[in-house]
Amino acid sequence: MAHALKAHVLPEPTVYAVDDDPIVRILLAALFEGANIPVETFSSAEEFLEVYTPDNPGVLLLDIVMPGMSGLELQKVLAVYGNNTPIIFLTGAAEVSMVIDALKSGASDFIEKPVQPTMVLDCVKKAMGVDLQSRYDRLQKSQVEQRMMLLTPREQEVMGWLVKGKSNKSIARILGISGRTVEVHRSKVVDKMHAHSMIDLATMLMKVES
């Protein structure tokens, strides 16, 4: 019988807005609160780093130019931490070259100041959707990997041949074991992997290999 895996519950997606201008922070907080989107604001990159964790889903809304650590520098620091949260930069018209550098370094998008509420909301909602899907895919992959760890080496062998479309009889001949033994291993593989079919099993392995 396969061991039960712990359920994973993702925190609520949140907008983390980092800007040294208090007026901008107030406007962004009001905008997202009005749209029922959780938001936290920070006056500097340093302040944000005190609470940051790459495990929290949502969007990072960063001013590209700030006193102390800039938005671009913060982006590089977060990359070292293994950041998975999409970054959207708030920029001025004169910061085109910085925007290009930010996008090359993996930023999701940028928004020019003064910000337009509708544009900000649309951009953030799109990034949140991408982030949640990405996190869900990683979670699925992690769960499959955990299940695979429950398999014995022989069960892993049998599973490998099963997803290649080999019959029990063929697998028995390849591995030099009885057909009955293959059936037992096959049953345990299906049980431990929580697979409903061979197609389901193959799909799981594709998630791990992708």
Describe the structure in your own words.
The chain is of the alpha/beta class. α4 links the parallel β4 and β5. It has two domains: 127 residues, 3-Layer(aba) Sandwich (Rossmann fold); 59 residues, Winged helix-like DNA-binding domain superfamily/Winged helix DNA-binding domain (Arc Repressor Mutant, subunit A). α5 crosses α9, α6 crosses α8 and α7 crosses α8. Helix content is 54%, strand content 11%. The protein contains nine helices and five strands, in the order βαβαβαβαβααααα. The protein has a five-stranded parallel sheet, with helices on both faces.
The major sheet is characterized as: 5 strands, parallel
- Tell me the number of structural domains: 2
CATH architecture of the largest domain: 3-Layer(aba) Sandwich
Fourth-level CATH superfamily of the largest domain? Response regulator
Summarize the helix and strand pattern as letters: EHEHEHEHEHHHHH
How does the overall form come out from the CA principal axes? elongated
- Sheet-strand content, in percent, reads 5-15%
Number of helices: 9
Annotated CATH topology of the largest domain: Rossmann fold
Q: Report the oligomer.
A: single chain
As a whole number of angstroms, the C-alpha radius of gyration is 24 Å
Fraction of helical residues: 40-55%
The overall pLDDT, averaged over residues, is: 86
* Coarse structural class: alpha/beta
CATH class of the largest domain: Alpha Beta
Relevant terms:
elongated, 54% helix, Arc Repressor Mutant, subunit A, alpha/beta, Rossmann fold, 2 domains, disordered N terminus, 210 residues
